[in-house]
């Protein structure tokens, strides 16, 4: 019995992609359409398991087909590709269990891929290997501002302006073709439609066919402007933290703010402050809600000469309540405006100079932002930022700009307030320092002197440098210079206390080394707090005593730089003294140095700020001082000026005290000395010596008082002191009588009772002379009395 075609063959039309699978998963039928779709002929696949053609997991695909009757499955193409096919499963009717599978390309997935490319929010472009456009999606077309047809099949450089940016873009396209590797980079550009700068993140990658042949270059351009501006904003804030407030100077801080925002945020910037801020006073607390007068402290512009400025530096202007700066101060918030706003136009119209500046500018349209400067609840001033609007730069200030400006202004305001507080403290400390320093110093018989004090101009503030010229008995003089460690009010107050202590100890007429020992103890006590813990007070000091009679100078130092002496013959030498410990160290001795100074020698005492002012070491600075001191000068004032000009920079970083003294000498005719035995009978002889000398000097009118003084002092020396006894008479600007003896016990005044036989001598001396006192000597003591010369002389 003849049989017809098998059932499987009857249900496999040649034009459709059909396959027949038996109950064991073996392919038993294969159509011509299936061959065209997969590349395999019927002979290649029949009799083989269908699972061999599945690219993925065949069991998963089979379960999905049986469950729903349809699935999208990746299959193995003969050429190695793995296309996804939409499969449908239908059971065959008959005695044997079998299935018919129909297949078709997954056009839905392909269509979605095309739509995804075309409708992506990211600009996507396809170039061939010759850098010609092949495809552009909608976002790319919008970015370029022209229809896709304008670019298709055209060379990239033919579609853009020739620029470094375009050539760099082309080099990256060529690099992908040359290396076959993807590239990633960022750049800035300006959109022709939006006229704003944008940051773009570019990805380029090679496009290949299944044979691994390079067909073109795919490109995506992501607009990363927001992220880039955020990074720029953070970088600007970081720069503000480091670049604003570099010094505690109000004007400099304002200038740093203006220079920071131009040109990145504005074309012109100005900073106006209240006068109280510039003077260091306490400014207004809270917002300002009335006509406010502000003073221009800083401004900066893209254009040299700052032509936009209607107010000069240092000039003041009154801002009406409706003006943007005044509104910003009243509300405490940034105020944005542009020409055309009624309040802004009204303000400009009120100020002739501002109106003229706007008329003279290339553009008559501008955007303005006023930002208040407030710190710690106090109003300091206002910063004004201006953009000149043009078709190329039409962007006005927005909320992001205001937020950034507010943060910058806030940081600057804190720095301005810190500088204001520093100015106030420095002014107070300087006033205190100057009040504690010598205001006027009377001329001395022993020396001619000149001095300078320069406060530090650095952020460290006023220090504790001081100097003094203290008259001593016997026409001697003490020259003092010192430096308290530290700066500010504390250093100034400590300096005042030490200066007072030196005057007190000098009045006792202690030798220099003993005086520094007592001063060291005092500093130790000052540096001890209530709990007994040692503090951090320290100071250096140099104390010198010069005697014009003996022409001897005795010096002692406590951690202080040595003095320099200019001899009359032009030699300049550094006096070798024992530096000694700093005051406050305690427990260490001080050594005195004695030398003879000829008449006319110039002694220079100074603080370390002079010789270390140029970041030089002490030896180099001292050598420079010696050179400057040796420059010929007509006066000591000129010597001071020469030294300071030679050694100091324009802004010294530390306080500087300089004291120069030219020595004088008393000739033998002005001094008379007699050695006396310890015999009461010698008192009459001493009176005669004195009377004869006063007659010789032509001042007989002083004889009566001087005889009484000599009688009392010599009598006391004989009765209570002992040999050797010496009487010395000195005639200079005053008449000085001195009696020395071997006793170290100092006399003191007491009130004698009615029937006392003694006790009235020193009281009589004190009443008859201008001043009297006692000083220790190496062998005992000296009692001295000083009286004015007769007025006829």
From TrEMBL:
InterPro entries: Bact_Sigma-Reg, GAF, GAF-like_dom_sf, HATPase_C_sf, HATPase_dom, PAS, PAS-like_dom_sf, PAS_4. GO terms for biological process: regulation of DNA-templated transcription. Gene3D superfamilies: 3.30.450.40, Histidine kinase-like ATPase, C-terminal domain (3.30.565.10), PAS domain (3.30.450.20), PPM-type phosphatase domain (3.60.40.10). Keywords: Hydrolase. It holds the Pfam family HATPase_c_2. Residues 16-48 form the PAS domain. GO terms for molecular function: phosphatase activity. This is SpoIIE family protein phosphatase. It comes from Streptomyces sp. NBC_00093.
């Amino acid at each position: 019995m003849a049989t017809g075609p098998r059932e499987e063959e009857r249900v496999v039309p040649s034009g459709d992609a059909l396959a027949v699978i038996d109950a064991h998963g073996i392919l038993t039928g294969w159509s011509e359409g299936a061959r065209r779709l997969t590349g395999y002929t019927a002979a290649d696949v029949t009799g083989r398991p269908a699972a061999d053609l599945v690219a993925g997991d065949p069991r998963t695909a089979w379960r999905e087909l049986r469950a729903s009757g349809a699935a999208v499955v990746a299959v193995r193409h003969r050429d190695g590709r793995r296309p996804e096919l939409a499969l449908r499963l239908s059971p065959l009717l008959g005695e044997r269990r079998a299935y018919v599978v129909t297949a078709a390309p997954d056009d839905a997935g392909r269509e979605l891929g095309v739509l995804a490319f075309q409708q992506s929010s990211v600009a996507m472009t396809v170039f061939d290997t010759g850098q010609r456009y092949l495809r552009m999606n909608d976002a790319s077309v919008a970015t370029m501002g022209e229809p896709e047809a304008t670019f298709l099949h055209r060379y990239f450089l033919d579609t853009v302006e020739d620029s470094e940016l375009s050539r760099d873009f082309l080099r990256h396209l060529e690099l992908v073709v040359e290396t076959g590797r993807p590239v990633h980079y960022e750049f800035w550009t300006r959109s022709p439609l939006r006229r704003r700068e944008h940051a773009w993140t570019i990805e380029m990658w090679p496009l290949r066919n299944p044979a691994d042949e390079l067909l073109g270059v795919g490109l995506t351009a992501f607009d990363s402007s927001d992220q880039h501006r955020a990074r720029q904003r953070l970088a600007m804030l970081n720069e503000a933290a480091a670049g604003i407030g570099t010094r505690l100077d109000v004007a400099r801080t304002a200038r740093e703010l203006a220079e920071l925002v131009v040109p990145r945020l504005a074309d012109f910037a100005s900073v106006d402050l209240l006068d109280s801020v510039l003077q260091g006073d306490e400014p207004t607390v809270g917002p300002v809600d009335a006509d406010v007068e502000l003073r221009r402290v800083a401004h900066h512009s893209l254009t040299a000469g700052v032509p936009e400025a209607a107010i000069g530096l240092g000039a003041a202007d009154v801002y009406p309540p409706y003006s943007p700066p005044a509104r910003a101060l009243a509300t405490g918030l940034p105020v944005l405006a542009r020409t055309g706003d009624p309040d802004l136009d009204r303000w400009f119209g009120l100020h002739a100079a501002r109106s003229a500046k706007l008329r003279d500018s290339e553009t008559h349209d501008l955007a303005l932002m006023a930002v208040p400067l407030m710190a710690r609840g106090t109003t300091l001033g206002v910063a004004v930022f201006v953009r000149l609007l043009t078709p190329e730069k039409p962007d006005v200030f927005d909320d992001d700009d205001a937020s950034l400006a507010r943060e910058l202004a806030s940081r600057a305001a804190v720095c301005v307030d810190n500088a204001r507080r520093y100015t106030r403290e420095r002014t107070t400390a300087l006033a205190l320092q100057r009040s504690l320093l010598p205001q006027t110093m009377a001329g001395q018989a022993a020396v001619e002197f000149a001095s300078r004090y320069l406060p530090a101009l650095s952020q460290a503030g006023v220090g504790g440098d001081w100097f003094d010229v203290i008259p001593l008995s016997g026409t001697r003089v003490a020259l003092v210079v010192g430096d308290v460690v530290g700066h500010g009010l504390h250093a100034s107050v400590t300096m005042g206390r030490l200066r007072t202590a030196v005057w007190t100890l000098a009045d006792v007429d202690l030798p220099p080394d003993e005086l520094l020992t007592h001063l060291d103890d005092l500093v130790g006590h000052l540096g001890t707090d209530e709990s007994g813990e040692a503090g951090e007070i320290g100071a250096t000091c140099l104390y010198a005593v010069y005697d014009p009679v003996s022409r001897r100078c005795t010096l002692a130092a406590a951690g202080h730089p040595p003095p320099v002496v200019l001899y009359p013959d032009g030699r300049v030498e550094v006096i070798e003294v024992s530096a000694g410990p700093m005051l406050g160290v305690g427990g260490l001795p001080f050594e005195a140095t004695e030398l003879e100074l000829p008449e006319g020698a110039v002694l220079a005492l100074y603080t370390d700020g002079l010789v270390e002012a140029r970041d030089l070491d002490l030896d180099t600075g001292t050598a420079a001082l010696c050179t400057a001191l040796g420059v010929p000068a007509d006066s000591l004032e000129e010597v001071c000026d020469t030294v300071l000009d030679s050694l100091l920079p324009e802004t010294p970083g530390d306080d500087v005290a300089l004291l120069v003294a030219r020595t004088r000498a008393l000739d033998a005719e002005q001094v008379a000395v007699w050695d006396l035995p310890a015999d009461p009978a010698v008192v009459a002889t001493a009176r005669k010596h004195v009377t004869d000398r006063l007659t010789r000097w032509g001042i007989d009118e002083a004889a009566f008082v001087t005889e009484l003084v000599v009688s009392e002092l010599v009598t006391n020396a004989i009765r209570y002191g002992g040999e050797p006894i010496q009487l010395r008479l000195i005639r200079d600007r005053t008449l000085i009588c001195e009696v020395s003896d071997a006793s170290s016990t100092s006399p003191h005044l007491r009130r004698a009772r009615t029937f006392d036989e003694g006790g009235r001598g020193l009281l009589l001396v004190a009443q008859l002379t201008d001043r009297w006192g006692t000083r220790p000597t190496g062998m005992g003591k000296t009692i001295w009395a000083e009286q004015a010369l007769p007025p006829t002389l």
